[in-house]
């Protein structure tokens, strides 16, 4: 049962190598038919859309998003975009075009993490400079989507008399594609407080996220945010099985496979795998970044707390396509109930998953 008040998004892997995040390695895993099957399954089961990740060495994110949008009717791609790989005016034009062609289905996840910058002729300084560039990128994107004849002279980007076409259609309160952003450093949080529409968190202990939300709201006031209030979302990976025992057995087998290098690179996970947050979850059980894996039985209600007004929940299930319907049918929304009952007879505290 999908919530009508929160956007539930999936994750569609766009990797050259098969077996991404422990998924089944099959021929054509990254072909258009296979990716379209996943996107259409999301539509069938009520998911709003899916993140399509970015990074040098992966198939181009925007190309995949456009192809899947053309083969679907309601699927909303959350397109990861990296400043430096894209210049603001180029991305603003591409996104505006796709948004018009799809009737307003584009979402954007701006990322500033480590990448092979030299491979595409980019460079950046320290983290403070990286996030300063990201701030300019996001601010200029928004101006190009909402203003005409934009002139901007920044430290990293410049435009003069720029008008992006086609012009975006205002759809209710939506003036442009929503800008999602993550990051926990001081520099990243200052960017989120002033430029993001949605700040994304990993599935961390609720007390820690509560502290960060309070800090971000305070920063928004201190930095004179001139946008609608910042909203918050969660990025989590879950593993669903029919019983707690089966869920834990499969999760432990997955971690063991990662340790042996049989399911991605163990270095991608081992730091987070040891950090349990008190809700019977592993930080880092998903490939390539520190997402979380929550083993729980299929008959356990998965509920999301509205204590802080979550507006987006991006879930990455394993394997991706096969769990779409099973997970959608087991999601409900609750403002007060604990999220998951810890397996093996132990009750968990609240966790924002």
How is this structure best described in words?
- The protein has 353 residues and is α/β, with parallel strands linked by helices.
- The chain has a single domain (7-328), classed as TIM Barrel (Alpha-Beta Barrel), CATH 3.20.20.
- The protein is 31% helix and 18% strand.
- It is built from 9 helices and 12 strands.
- The chain has helices spanning 32-44, 61-70, 88-101, 127-146, 186-195, 206-222, 244-259, 270-273, 324-328, and strands at 7-11, 49-52, 76-81, 107-110, 150-153, 158-162, 179-181, 198-202, 231-241, 282-283, 292-297, 310-317.
- Strands 1-2-3-4-7-8-9-12 form an 8-stranded parallel barrel, surrounded by 4 helices.
- Helix 6 links the parallel strand 8 and strand 9 (231-241).
- Helix 3 (88-101) crosses helix 4, helix 4 (127-146) packs parallel to helix 5 (186-195) and helix 5 (186-195) crosses helix 6.
- The relative contact order is 0.14.
- Residues 265-309, 315-319 and 332-353 have low confidence and may be disordered.
Short account of what is shown:
The chain has 353 residues and is of the alpha/beta class. The protein has helices spanning 32-44, 61-70, 88-101, 127-146, 186-195, 206-222, 244-259, 270-273, 324-328, and strands at 7-11, 49-52, 76-81, 107-110, 150-153, 158-162, 179-181, 198-202, 231-241, 282-283, 292-297, 310-317.
């Amino acid at each position: 049962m999908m919530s009508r008040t929160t956007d539930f998004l999936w994750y569609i892997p766009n990797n050259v190598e098969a077996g991404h995040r422990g998924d089944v390695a099959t021929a054509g895993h990254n072909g258009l038919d296979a990716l379209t099957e996943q996107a259409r399954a999301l539509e069938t089961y009520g998911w709003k859309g899916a993140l399509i990740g970015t990074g040098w060495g992966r198939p181009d994110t925007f190309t995949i998003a456009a192809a899947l949008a053309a083969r679907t009717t309601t699927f909303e791609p959350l397109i990861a975009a990296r400043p430096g790989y894209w210049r603001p005016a180029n991305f603003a034009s591409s996104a505006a075009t796709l948004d018009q062609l799809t009737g307003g289905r584009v979402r954007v996840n701006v990322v500033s993490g480590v990448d092979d910058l030299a491979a595409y002729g980019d460079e950046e300084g320290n983290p403070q400079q990286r996030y300063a560039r990201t701030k300019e990128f996001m601010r200029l994107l928004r101006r190009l989507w909402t203003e005409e004849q934009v002139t901007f002279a920044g430290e990293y980007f410049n435009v003069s008399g720029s008008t992006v076409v086609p012009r975006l259609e205002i759809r209710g309160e939506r003036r442009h594609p929503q800008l999602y952003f993550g990051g926990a450093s001081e520099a990243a949080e200052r960017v989120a407080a002033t430029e993001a529409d949605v700040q994304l968190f990993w599935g961390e202990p609720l007390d820690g996220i509560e502290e960060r939300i309070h800090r971000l709201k305070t920063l928004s006031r201190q930095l004179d945010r001139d946008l609608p209030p910042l909203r918050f979302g969660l990025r989590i990976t879950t593993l669903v099985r029919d019983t707690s025992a089966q869920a834990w057995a499969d999760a432990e087998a997955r971690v063991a496979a990662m340790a042996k290098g049989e399911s991605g690179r163990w270095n991608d996970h081992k730091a987070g795998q040891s950090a349990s947050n008190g809700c019977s979850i592993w930080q880092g059980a998903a490939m390539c970044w520190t997402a979380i894996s929550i083993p729980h039985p299929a008959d356990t209600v998965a509920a999301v707390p509205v204590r802080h007004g979550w507006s987006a929940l991006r879930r990455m299930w394993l394997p991706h396509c096969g769990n779409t319907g099973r997970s959608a049918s087991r999601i409900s929304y609750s403002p007060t109930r604990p999220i998951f009952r810890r397996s093996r007879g132990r009750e968990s505290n609240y966790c924002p998953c």
